[in-house]
Please model this.
Amino acid sequence: MCTLEKRGSLYILTLTGPGEHRLNPTLIDAIQSALRRVKAEPTTSSSALITTAQGKFFSNGFDLAWAQSIQSNLLLMSQKSQSLIHDLITLPMPTIAAISGHVSAAGVFLALSHDYVLMRKDRGFLYMSELDIGMTIPAVYIALLESKIGEPMARRQMLLRAAKLTAKEAVERGVIDAAYDSVDETIRAAVELGEELVKRKWDGHVYAQNRMVILREVLDKLEFDETGGGITNTKSKL
Amino acid sequence: MCTLEKHGNVFILTLTGSSDLDEHRLSPPVIDSILSALSQAKAQATPGSILVTTSHGKFFSNGFDLAWAQAAGSRTGARERLHQMVEDFKPVVAAMIALPMPTVAAINGHAAAAGFTLALSHDYVLMRRDKGVLYMSEIGSASVRRDILLRAKKIKGEEAVKMGIVDSAHDSVEQVAEASMRLGKQLASRKWGGEVYAEIRKSLYPELCGVLGLAQKVVFGQF
Model:
């Protein structure tokens, strides 16, 4: 499912295996478990998180086969995904998504929940497939999109045209931060960026609070079962 | 007034006029006629339908019919008539945002004030590079539209593209029409379900939906 590695001050969370890393409750649980371990480490020095994946896909979105149009399954997946987004938004350290392959739908939202998004440009598309699949998008994900992608036209193009963007196009439209020639280059850049951020010796909790202010629109719209993830308050305290 | 034609999958809404210099002002009867056309398009929508809105001559639309407002004879009368047009127009914007198909505005000429708003209510806006400007003199909410709204700037095709207001600018009105139809056909070929298209569009504009009283709903697709 996923592994968590410590490299100096950096945590590297990898979605393992050659598959599509579809976000189903099991994978989300594994990721959240890893994030809890990251949070639990003593914070004597500042850290950063890099999320990446093995294989051809970063993440191809929700596990629709598992959900099979059963409304309660879809809702559960959406709630768990929102809970995961909450964990990332409240994580007391900078976060970097190193997109290693195709990323679509809920996978894009997972990536955008990170402070920095880097992507390989030699292969892989960034694709909001919801329109093609015929699914509407809950308000919280739109709020995430709005807080990360500045241009209304870029957002419209992603959602209303279900565009498949190359990494280069994604950089041009301000969807992601930077693109690199290969997956190794992307990870190297992520590590470099991570180390640069760690050098600033920021207090992780202050960092998280600042991030939560910027993303308060997203936090306000999160809806998930309070008892599900051990989170006691779904609303921003700010 | 306006006409609604159907060419295959493409609905063409044309603001009609008496001559090439007709300003296609949005008076109450014209607004009614547009609303009626949009209802018709919605009723006949199928996956792969699209709407292209255009006009002919020097103007796409120069906004509300201010002459009619002034013909009320008094200041209060004029204000009431203007207010009526503003209120009458809101359902048009609502209908555009809720329309179950992609929408393209093929801007053939000047688009000012409410005419500009009408254009912006479309998913894609194409205009001429050489002639025609977008112009809005009212003060409104700022952001990127600061230059338009607070500086009452007149924006030509290329600049409108650079500012991210318009999708593309073309060398002539014929090319605008051609490009609009081409874009329309490309969009139509994706055969998106109209309901989910409209709901995703609405989700992009939550505040606007609030102002217009547009409800949103969840659609789970077939997969």
User: Anything to note?
Assistant: Residues 75-98 of chain B form the longest helix (24 residues). Chain B has nine helices and ten strands.
